[in-house]
Structure formats: C-alpha cells, structure tokens
Amino acid sequence: MKTCCSLFVVALFLQTGAQQNPYFNTRNSPPAPSITCPEKTGRFATSQCDAYIECEDGKGEEKLCPDGLLFNPALGIYHQPCQYPVEVDCSGREATQPPQSTEECPHRYGYFRIGDAANCGQFKNCVDGRAYVFDCPEGLAFDEQSLRCDWPDQVSSCDAEAYLGFTCPPGAARGDFDDNSYTTFRSADCHHYYICVNSRPRLYNCGKGRAFNELINACDGAENVTGCASATERPHYTTNALRF
C-alpha cells in the first residue's frame, strides 16, 4: 500500500512539474521556424548584409560572416561567401552585426588607415582582431575606399601637400597628366622630384645611382648632375608586416 501511494505522489509531482517548467514540457512548445530555401542548393542574401542562408538539399541554415566582412550573393557556391566591404553591394540590406572591436582593430577583419591627413601612407590589416601594419610604396597614400595605395592627390582623406612636404607653386601645370600637361620640380635631395598634376604634387624617385637633372628635366646618371655624384639616396618606404 505504501509503495502504491509513493508511486502516486511521484506521478503527481512529475505532472505538476511538467505544467510549471517550460523546459520540462516540450509538447506545447512552438516549433522552431523553418528556413525557406529559394533553391535546393546555394547561398542567399537576407535583410542583413553580413548574414546569409546556406541551403543544401533543400535544408536551410542561417549563417553570419566574420565581423568586418560582408556576404556577396554574386559569388558561386564554390567561393568563400564573405568579402571586404569594397567588394560587396549592400543596397537594400545595409544592416550589419555590432562591431567586435579589439584594442588593435575597429573590426575583427578589414583594412584600415593609420594616421591623419598629413600621415596617410600606413595602414593595418586586421585578422581575427590582430593588426598587422604595412607601409604604402614611397609617395603613395592608403585609400580606404578602394583598399589600395594611390597617389595622395587621388585620396580624398589625404592632404597631399602636407604628406609630401611640397606645394606646387602658382602657375604650375593645371592640365591632365595623361595629356603630358604637368611640371616637374627637383626635391631637396638629388634622387627625388615632384610632378604637379592639376596643381597637386606627386613624388617620384629616380632610383639608385641616378639623380634628377633640371637641365634636361628628367632623371640622369648621378655623375652628370652637379653635386649629386656622391649624394646618398634617401631610404625608400618598404612594405612590412609588423605586429602592434
């Protein structure tokens, strides 16, 4: 009799617990929403630019790109689905996940300029929140819009005159470089010179053993330029991969 009563009490406890504990009773829980696949196999955009749906044999799974990368629906199934923002059109799906910034990087992945408008020749490549620093080739500036090093006068966030330390004088060529409408100026050392394009400066290097000859308005052997035969060439910027 005691055993029978004990079983009754246990059964009553289990029934009561099932009614009160939502984790215990799953019979009345709403089913997980199914993911609709536009096609049986493929990757498909959502309303969020760094998210996508991956479908295989009609079964869909929501996925999220690493922070700083965006889903590119134009890529095929055999390509990596997430790319840098400059390569992806987010029209109509501009929302993204909150940034996962670190001490070194504003996003876990991406390329970012270092310095202000007067120091625009460096950038960092962030990989999983770790930053690696690079220098643009000499005389070039990093463009965050294209993720490339370009002439500083072509980079909107760079002050070419402050960065290069040279301002084209009044009357310098205002034409287009492609039309050979430009003016050259020798720099403070023998090996470099400036070209003014649309009244904006660009820095050039004649190379080792050569110097800019104002008499011919071109690079020449250093021995042919007065005062440059024994001049020491200014060091180039080099591309480095340095950790912070």
From TrEMBL:
It comes from the Eukaryota. The keyword Lipid biosynthesis does not apply. InterPro entries: Chitin-bd_dom, Chitin-bd_dom_sf, Chitin_bind-dev_reg. It comes from Photinus pyralis. Residues 34-92, 102-160, 165-230 form the Chitin-binding type-2 domain. Keywords: Chitin-binding, Disulfide bond, Glycoprotein, Repeat, Signal. Pfam families: CBM_14 (PF01607). Residues 1-19 form the signal peptide. This is Chitin-binding type-2 domain-containing protein. GO terms for molecular function: chitin binding. The keyword Glycoprotein applies. SMART domains: ChtBD2. One of its GO terms (cellular component) is extracellular region. PROSITE patterns: CHIT_BIND_II.
